[in-house]
Design a protein that fits this description.
228 residues, Metallo-beta-lactamase, Chain A, 5-stranded mixed beta sheet, 31% helix
């Protein structure tokens, strides 16, 4: 997800590391479960192609903020390592570097890179003007969601992006526990959902789940009509 301000672009999450999916030996190493094999678009590097489609050069991205270190969110760090600061919760990096992380699909090869300029937060933190990270541990120990406030110049308003603190619309509307979590109870994940709902209600912003197959196409059309 790409968020722009007067100083440049902020990238929220980076997608998969394509090398671990397309190389047969690496895919067997990192994705041994036949029930979970990532499907990538027919593009060499989907992240770079997505930026190109909206006319944004990689050099125009001035910072990255990660919700968490799972492979589908942090794998594209290889494109920005050594280029820009990367915002993350300290607890998440500690988890990612622990021996148990790989079993939870947080692959150290994606993010254990000395070139990465980590900006580690311990709780809620401002990432950039109009972009605030909200600590929502549960899905992973250092998961964070993001509040994005749009400037008056583009009509104001904003969004609360839950990322994996709420996978689907049902998680939000029915306050259902998410399907995957670490070191917490299912009820703890509902507490985080309620917190995000309260923030969204207070600000008058929409709360967007992380992986809903209906919500995201609708949101893409809405944003395209507004900013396209």
């Amino acid at each position: 997800m790409l968020v722009g301000d007067s100083e440049g672009w902020i990238l929220l999450d980076t997608g998969f590391n394509t090398a671990l999916v397309r190389d047969v030996a690496l895919r067997r190493r990192f994705y041994p479960d036949a029930d979970y094999v990532p499907i990538l678009p027919d593009e060499d590097e989907p992240l770079l192609s997505a930026l190109d489609r909206v006319g944004v050069a990689l050099d125009d991205v001035r910072a990255v903020a990660l919700s968490h270190l799972h492979a589908d969110h942090a794998g594209g760090l290889k494109h920005v390592a050594g280029r820009v600061p990367v915002h993350l919760q300290r607890r998440e990096l500690e988890f990612g570097l622990s021996p148990r992380a790989e079993a939870d699909t947080a692959f150290r090869v994606d993010f254990d890179d000395p070139r990465i300029d980590w900006r580690l937060a311990e709780g809620d933190a401002q990432v950039a003007s109009g972009v605030t990270a909200v600590a929502t541990p549960g899905h992973t120990p250092g998961h964070q969601s993001f509040v994005v406030e749009l400037s008056d110049r583009v009509g104001g308003g904003g969004y609360v992006f839950a990322f994996d603190a709420a996978d689907l619309r049902d998680n939000i509307e029915r306050e259902l526990a998410i399907g995957s979590f670490v070191d917490v109870t299912p009820e703890d994940t509902v507490t985080q959902i309620r917190r995000l709902k309260a923030i969204a209600a207070e600000r008058g912003f929409a709360l967007v789940p992380g992986h809903d197959p209906v919500v995201w196409p609708q949101l893409s059309r809405e944003l395209g009509a507004r900013f396209g």
